[in-house]
Amino acid sequence: MNSAQKLIFEIGQPGRIATDLPQSDVGEQLASALIPAELQRSEPASLPEVSQLELIRHYTALSMRNFGVDTGFYPLGSCTMKYNPKVNEDICRYQGLADIHPLQDEASVQGALELLYNMEQYLAEISGMDKVSLQPVAGAHGELTGLKVIRAYHRHNNENRTKVIVPDSAHGTNPASAAVCGMEIVEIKSNEDGSVNIEALKQAVGPDTAALMLTNPSTLGLFETNIEEIAQIVHQAGGLLYYDGANANAIMGIVRPGDMGFDVIHFNLHKTFSTPHGGGGPGSGPIGVKAVLRDFLPSPQIEFDGRLYKLDDTNPLSIGKVHAFWGNFGVIVRAYAYIRTMGPAGLRQSSIDAVLNANYCLAALKQDYDAPFEQYCMHECVLTSKKQKQYGVRTLDIAKRLLDYGYHPPTIYFPLIVEEALMIEPTETESKETLDGFIAAMKKIAHEAETDPDIVRHAPHSTVVGRLDETTAARKPNVKWAK
Fold first, then answer.
1. What is the C-alpha separation between 273 and 255, in angstroms, rounded?
2. For the segment 27-83, what is each residue's pLDDT rounded down to a tens digit?
3. pLDDT for 338-353, tens place per residue?
4. Could you tell me the CA-to-CA distances from 332 to 98, 114, 159, 274, 275 in Å, in that order?
5. Least confident of 274-283, 358-367, 368-377
6. For residue 152, which phi and psi values (nearest 5 degrees)?
7. Cα 476 from Cα 482, distance rounded (Å)
8. pTM for the model
9. Would strands 131-133 and 184-188 be described as parallel, antiparallel, or unpaired?
10. How many other CB atoms sit within 10 Å of the CB of residue 359?
11. Cys staple from 265: which of 75, 208, 243, 399, with CB 3.0 to 4.6 Å?
12. 240-245 and 264-267 as β-strands: parallel, antiparallel, unpaired?
């Protein structure tokens, strides 16, 4: 790839065209009459004039500068960037699914409603919940929806519960969603082994406790072994347990949040069930609830009377709509195809393989990097650069150096409670050969940090753009093109 690739305005010659458009069937006078004068151009747009071949080569070269799960290993911890099977893309483009409209009469979209109804049943079974809503369109949106359900439940019971307990290792969206919902956040510290501090939890709960938001496995990649005691403490105080489903890829088919004591869960279909992920969307964050909360779910709900699937919005306790229509339908179809393809045994095996891959990485790298936790991890492992720090090399430097070896960096500096954290999630879809290549690169960087730290500190060296001033780039981005 040419690092000095020209802008499309800098290539081509006057008169070259990339398309052959048909003649307009709207007369020029009619077009002028329909378009307000202030919106009409006084002179032609200054567009690049290139041939079709130049156009294709230009944008193909640009596409190769993007990194995605289809082009390389993407070990982002807590994000589950697993492969998206292309058969799911084909299925969601079936005419009967892609060409329908959400305002069609229910009788004309029975197949789509049946798919959504079945998907709700699948997610309820996987999570151990009693009822599911597919409306939320992102993980954080699912969090907000779940918290609104919890708040509505407490208000219905004439209880003014406003506090949400959040461990200090939680995803940042947990306290953010609670704040947006108008709740007060109570942070509790973790133990040295990364688990929830039971004594701190006992001190935090009270008559104003609305919920505890928890991820299990936690954001440290560790399973909360005291989860039943945690659930008992919160429930005895009158609160509810909210399950952040970001790490569900570690437990599918092995253990269910509903059986652990959770009352509400959100899934990330774009993580756990292999739908496209990143770039701000598309996403999908369905929520599941125990029976006591089902009446508060968003409306409408899909019901089946044994003959027809119907949309029911008559429940007076519902929090109402949280999204236009029925959620991100195309994403749900992809996840539905994945679940049907995998089946119960396949989902369980994917979790087993994800845990195996993460522990393989941990075992291979814990001699070269610091491993802050002694126990086996689940689907992701946390390392740190404490050993490299003595040579002036930090986690950010290691992440940048990985770019030179062709790997997307893992999550860095998260969880926040781990100094110089490197959080690696290989997922189940990566082969041993891929993991071995990544491990070899990480080991080489550890060796470089000791023998030639400058090459790591000034990385990357082979990318189109070198090390940026990240603060300035975020706050004062320069996106203008100047001749």
1. 16
2. 777 778 888 989 988 888 888 999 999 999 999 999 888 888 888 999 999 989 999
3. 999 999 999 999 999 9
4. 12, 12, 35, 11, 8
5. 274-283
6. -65, -40
7. 17
8. 0.90
9. unpaired
10. 17
11. 243
12. parallel
Residue 145, C-beta contacts closer than 8 angstroms, at least 6 positions apart:
133, 135, 136, 266, 285, 287, 298, 319, 322
For tokens 């306290």, the residue is 175
> Nearest CA to 361 among 349, 376, 346?
376
Residues in the chain: 483
Chain centre distance of CA 299: 24
Rounded Cα distance, 143 and 53, in Å: 47
The amino acid at residue 232 is Q
Phi-psi region of 128 (alpha: psi -120 to 50; beta: other; left: phi over 0): left
The single-letter code of the amino acid at 235 is: H
Confirm if 87 and 336 have CB atoms less than 8 A apart.
no
